[in-house]
Amino acid sequence: MTNSQKKRLEEIEFSVLDLAPVLLGKTPADTFKNSLDLAQNVERFGYKRYWLAEHHNMEGIASSATSVLIGYIAGGTKTIRVGSGGVMLPNHAPLVIAEQFGTLESLYPGRIDLGIGRAPGTDQVTSMALRRNLHGSVSEFPNDVQELINYFAPKEKRKGYVRAVPGEGLNVPVWLLGSSTYSAQLAAKLGLPFGFASHFAPNHLYEALKIYRDQFQPSEHLKEPYALACVNVVAADTDEEAKYLATSLYQMFLGVIRGTSRLLQPPVESMDGEWNEFEKEAVRHQLYFSFVGSKQTIKEKLQKFLDDTQVDEIMVVSYIYDHSARVHSYRILSEIKNEM
Fold it and tell me: Of the residues 34, 117, 133, 297, which has the maximum number of CB atoms within 10 A of its CB?
């Protein structure tokens, strides 16, 4: 592919992933207010989607009741698409998810996305508390996906006796999300849009994108492959300020490496006293696709990422402790796109 054929940042959509982080000294109620304010701001900035991700039993993440939060955000915005990034389908009966998202689509027509994944979004003990069948085979997930899609089909095309009301006949786009090649293969086979979680799982990004594009089969849902990749972005007026703000992100993933769940921590002047060399490298590896810096720095690094991946859409998650700085980071990113 020649340089003239490669995508430019101004040609693709930017979107937002929100895990509803709970800040140190704050409550989930504060988090939800911040999420709505962020959604309203990024809507004005021109972002395409605002997705929330299902997690459970994590002190610092308040997005467990994902469909409820989607309704809250959609109700407080006007044009931006709102959805899940994603709902962890093995935790739920497909019918229940079809009914929930059918309800959301009925309330906010043309604005709801349903991104689904096959991970539990939590630990095994919590998975059992969610009544998730831990003994089922991987083959159940494709069947569950197809069952879910069937519930949205028009009455004349739907298979089976059970109906999703509301849900039946509604156009709720279903995305497959993943951090490995598994969902890429399934999305290609079913002709669905695909999102890759490169913001925390960088290893298989390029392989998954290649598999998805090479194996894609057109469907009634999608005629050509459409791939989204999620990355971490911390943008500020200067590189130095961005690096300082990014220490909250590093502390969060340090907790992941250590197997501890903490509220999102304020930034620190230096991470030197926070981690050892092994932990530092582990965090850096997991956050390989993270872009930290001023507008110009982010612009150059993100364009390089787009050159390498040729994704159709970039989704951004920003773990920044100060809410105003978080909003400003998304503003800077939108300016990069709009000024080119």
Answer: 117
